[in-house]
């Protein structure tokens, strides 16, 4: 469901996507808007779901998870119960940061983080190879991150 976003709301969203720690007073100075108006708009953006959550982005290298692997998964069947069982099981794997149902050559694309290739081999053996309904897995290691953002264009 799309929410009505005016230019001031968009400017607030751009600011909080860059730095969610900004106070309403700091935002108000950057936006030339009163602190109370900034606060009200932030509350409305949160209440309408335009802002889903405020989180800290953890540096994967610092916490020992510098290896990113993209895993393409094809299922043996497209039946609802197979899809549901797969999605429930994959959501329980802490190393999987993202899982997307896809169109095209494979059914799901996973973004997995690991310490190194040996750690990924363990994740593959313990979790990925045991996912229900899997017919084929293909893994690709990211060699370099060229660009990365969590900020949506608004």
Helix and strand topology:
Blueprint: H1 7-18, H2 24-31, H3 35-47, E1 67-75, H4 80-90, E2 96-101, E3 108-114, H5 117-126, E4 134-141
Antiparallel strand pairs: 1-3, 1-4, 2-3
Description of the structure:
This protein is α+β, with helices and mostly antiparallel strands. It folds into 2 domains: 7-47, Arc Repressor Mutant, subunit A (Orthogonal Bundle), CATH 1.10.10; 67-141, Lrp/AsnC effector binding domain/regulation of amino acid metabolism (RAM) domain (Alpha-Beta Plaits, 2-Layer Sandwich). The chain is built from 5 helices and 4 strands, in the order αααβαββαβ. It has helices at residues 7-18, 24-31, 35-47, 80-90, 117-126, and strands at residues 67-75, 96-101, 108-114, 134-141. Strands 2-3-1-4 form a 4-stranded antiparallel β-sheet. β2 and β3 form a beta hairpin. The protein starts with 6 loop residues before the first helix and ends in a 13-residue tail after the last strand. The model has no long low-confidence stretch (mean pLDDT 96).
């Amino acid at each position: 469901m799309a929410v009505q976003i005016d230019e001031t709301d968009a400017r607030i969203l751009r600011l909080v996507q860059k730095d969610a720690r900004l106070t309403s007073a700091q935002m108000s100075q950057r936006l030339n808007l009163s602190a109370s108006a900034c606060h009200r708009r932030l509350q409305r953006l949160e209440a309408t779901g335009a802002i889903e959550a405020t989180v800290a982005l953890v540096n994967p290298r610092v916490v020992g998870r510098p290896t990113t692997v993209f895993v393409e998964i094809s299922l043996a069947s497209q039946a609802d119960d197979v899809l549901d069982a797969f999605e429930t099981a994959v959501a329980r794997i802490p190393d999987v940061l993202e899982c997307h149902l896809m169109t095209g050559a494979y059914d799901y694309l996973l973004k997995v983080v690991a310490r190194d290739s040996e750690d990924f081999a363990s994740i593959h053996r313990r979790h990925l190879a045991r996912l229900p309904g899997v017919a084929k897995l293909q893994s690709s290691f990211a060699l370099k991150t060229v660009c990365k953002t969590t900020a949506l264009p608004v």
